Amino acid sequence: MNPVSRILVPTDLSECAGAAAAWAAGLARQLGAVIELVTVVDTTHFNEIYGDETLRNQRIAHIRGEAGKQLEAFAQRYLGGLEQVRREVRDGNTMQEILAAAGEKGCELIVMGTHGRTGVAHLLIGSVAEKVVRQSTVPVLTVRPPRA
């Protein structure tokens, strides 16, 4: 087994993702690992919404900028004490971008939150975490938020 030196933490910027980031921070401290913090803006339907390419690109750039600000605040809140945290905003299909980021960055572990939906909510909404677990070539640790 190879030591973990790089941990991918995909985030939707929610409290649930914050719980996963806190777990990842603890692991990173123990292992001396780098955190690769990634949020994905799902732009898969933008071709349909914005027919004009210039308008579409402007809208994506604006959304990416806002996501970058939120990602920075998220990093400060949950990973503020860590020295080695890299941040990236990606756009595209969320699950595909998470898997691509893990591969491109050479991550040996993915730590991500799961909302733990079941029943009809799970069937209708699906689970990005479940899809990542099923298709990832590296281990995935899923973290549920603490119960209130």
Describe, in plain words, how this protein is organized in 3D.
- This protein has 148 residues and is α/β, with parallel strands linked by helices.
- The protein has a single domain (6-143), classed as Rossmann fold (3-Layer(aba) Sandwich).
- Helix content is 51%, strand content 20%.
- It is built from 6 helices and 5 strands; from the N terminus they run βαβααβαβααβ.
- The protein has helices spanning 15-31, 46-49, 53-79, 94-105, 119-125, 128-135; strands at 6-10, 34-41, 85-91, 109-113, 140-143.
- A 5-stranded parallel beta sheet has the order 3-2-1-4-5, sandwiched between helices.
- α1 links the parallel β1 and β2.
- α1 (15-31) crosses α3 and α4 (94-105) crosses α6 (128-135).
- The longest helix has 27 residues, at 53-79.
- The protein is globular.
- The protein starts with 5 loop residues before the first strand and ends in a 5-residue tail after the last strand.
- Mean pLDDT is 87; it is low at 121-125.
